[in-house]
Amino acid sequence: MKSAHRQRLFFLACLFEALLVLVATGMGWLLHQPLFANLRWSLSEAALGMAAAIPMLILFRGLLRSSHEALVPIRDFLEAVVRPVFGQWSLAQLALISILAGVCEEILFRGVLQAGLAGPIGPAGALAVTSVLFGLCHLITWEYAVIAGLIGAYLGLLFLGSGNVLAPMVAHAVYDFAALVYFLRVHRPEQNPTSI
Q: Do 45 and 59 meet the contact criterion of CB atoms below 8 Å apart?
């Protein structure tokens, strides 16, 4: 992939993530939920977010190593799309897109939608709705959407438990960065998957 094309894809990916803040602003207005009402700096909640990324990374590694037929299309997508698109990005570019995804997606899904829907439909209903929406927004395959929905529920529970969108933001960003680095720099497609 040529350098100019690679840079254009990087710019578009960053722009897409940043535009989610505009979506969050509109949804926040509709739900009467300020964007940053549930965001505050806390070293302990940032550390909680880092620790919360570990189970998701274990799940991702298991997905890559599994021979289960439902996971094959996900691995095929990762090899056919993610590796060619992201494979030549620098660590700094991978870090930036991961931070943008963590911040922008969590502001939208947890900070605005889950928090804003909690009043009208209750915390459990808000968690369920935002988890399904998060899964559908990651509809690469139906199996991947289910996994993403479960991750959305996990991040939503982290938000509920901490009361601070910082914890899921950090968990999401750390997971994205570590998963991309592992997949692109460590994992090799020729490794034979084994049953988990």
A: no
- Overall residue count recorded for the chain in this entry: 196
Alpha helix segments (H runs only) across 66-165: 72-77, 83-86, 91-106, 115-136, 142-162
Residue 188 falls in which region: left (phi positive, over 0), alpha (psi -120 to 50) or beta? beta
Distances (CA, A) of 81 to 43, 51, 152, 175, 178: 36, 29, 22, 19, 18
Q: Are 152 and 28 in contact (CB under 8 A)?
A: no
DSSP-assigned states of every residue in 90-114: -HHHHHHHHHHHHHHHHIIIIIIII
Contact 46, 170 (CB under 8 A): yes
pLDDT tens-digit readout, 68-104: 888 888 999 999 989 988 988 999 999 999 999 999 9
Report the predicted TM-score, pTM, of the whole model to 2 decimal places: 0.92
